[in-house]
Amino acid sequence: MDSKKNHPLSPVYGLFGELNSLQTKKRKQILSDLGFDPSLRRPLERMEPDTWNQNNLEILKKIFADPMYRKLILHLKMINLSFFIFFSLLSERKFRPRLSFNFLNDLIQIPNRSHEELVKIIQILEEMQMLTSIRLPQSISELFALEQSRIENLAKNSFTETLVVYPEPPFEGDAWIQPIKSNLDLFEEGKRQHNCVYDYDEKIRNGRFYLYHITGKVPCTVSFLKIDEDWYFDQIAGPCNKPADPDTYHRLEAWRLRHGILILGDVFRLGKAPTWMLD
Predict the structure, then answer these.
(1) 199 phi and psi angles, rounded to 5 deg
(2) What pTM does this model have?
(3) H-run or E-run covering 225
(4) Which of 20, 85, 181, 205 has the highest count of CB atoms within 10 angstroms of its CB?
C-alpha cells in the first residue's frame, strides 16, 4: 500500500478528513466512505494538481453520474482546468450536448483554454445540436470548420419565413447599439455579418436570448443570455466572427455596467464556488 504522502488519493481524502488512517484502507473503500462512486478512482487520480479542491471534486462526481458522460470520463488520460470550466459553463447554460470522446480529448489538450474560447465552443455546439443532420465533430478545428461552412451556405439563402416580431428587448438601445427586433432583422444581421445568428431565432422568441447590432469601426453582433431572472453578456463578434475593436469593447462595457448586466464566468476567475453545479 502507498504511504500517506504518495497515495494517489491523498488530496481527495485530505479534503474531507484526516490522513492518519489512509494507509489501512483500499482506494475504493476510501471513495465509498466519502460518498463517491468507487469507479471514480481513476478519473480522480488523473486530475491535474491545480484542479484539486472540494468544489471540483463535487462537480466531477455530478458529471460522472450522468450516463451520457460517464464512459467518456473513464477513458480520459487527464482532467484539467479546461475540463472543469467547460462542464461548468454547460451547466450554467443548462446545455447537455452529445460529445465524442475524440472531441473532448482534443478540448483538454490545452489545459488552460480561455473562458472566452470555451464559451465560443459551447455556442457553436448549441447551434450544431439544432441541426440533427450534422455529425458530431471530432476536434475543435472541425467544429469551427463546420460553422464556417454553414455561414457560407446561409449567405446564399433568401428570407422565406413569416415575419415574427420579437418580445420587447430587455434594455433600450442607443445611437450605436440597437436591438434586433424581428426574425427578418436577425436574418439580415446574419447575412451582413457572415455568422449563424439566425440559429437563435427560437430562443429569442422564447425569451432566453436577445441580440443587438453595434455600429463602429467594426460592426458587431452582441448577444445576451437570460439565466433565471438575470441577463448575462454572452458574446460579441464582428463580421465572420472576428474580434470587436477595443473602442467598441470599452463602450459596451460601460453600457453593460449601466444596465446591470452580468458576465458569465466571473465565478471561475474569482475562484468562487459555482454553486449551481452543486444543487
Answers:
(1) -60, -20
(2) 0.61
(3) strand 220-227
(4) 85
Measured distance CA(239)–CA(192) in Å, rounded? 8
Question: Of all helices (H) and strands (E), which one includes residue 83?
Answer: helix 81-92
Residue positions counted in the chain: 279
Cell of 173: 438601445
Q: Which amino acid is at 230?
A: D
Q: H helices then E strands: how many in the chain? A: 13, 5
In one-letter notation, the amino acid at residue 5 is K
What is the rounded distance in angstroms from the CA atom of residue 257 to the CA atom of residue 214?
Answer: 17
Along the 279 residues of the chain, how does pLDDT read in single tens digits?
A: 444 445 556 666 555 555 455 455 666 676 777 777 888 888 988 999 889 888 888 889 899 999 999 999 999 999 999 999 999 989 888 889 989 999 999 999 999 898 889 988 998 888 777 665 667 889 999 998 888 887 777 767 777 789 999 999 999 999 999 999 999 999 999 888 888 888 889 999 999 999 999 998 889 999 999 888 889 998 898 887 788 889 999 999 999 999 999 887 554 443 444 444 334
